[in-house]
Amino acid sequence: MNFEYLFYLLIPVIGYFGYKHNVRGAHKALIADGDYVIVSSTSLARDIKLLRKRVKNADIVKIQVSNSCISLFNPSDNAIDIWLPNKKAVNTVANKASKLFKSAKVVNLCS
Asked: C-alpha angle with apex 69: 59 to 106, nearest 5 degrees?
């Protein structure tokens, strides 16, 4: 079997999923679930539920916003990093995070 044809068939599929994650994935980064929030830290975790993390609303004490990443810190200074494709997605998720984690302090590192 010639694997060259298989390679040419996979390129559009990989390109489609890459485009889909970058454009439409930011709204799935934080999902409210009662007293908990489901966090999808990467674009792959936004489609595969097993890779998501569940954190309690009261456990997040600081939200740190940078150019392509949002970090959620707990009281022991451990962080969950949420990687996003562009500045618009970062701003959208940062606003959602500040609404979900009301007691958290927001630190903006963007230039």
From this structure: 50
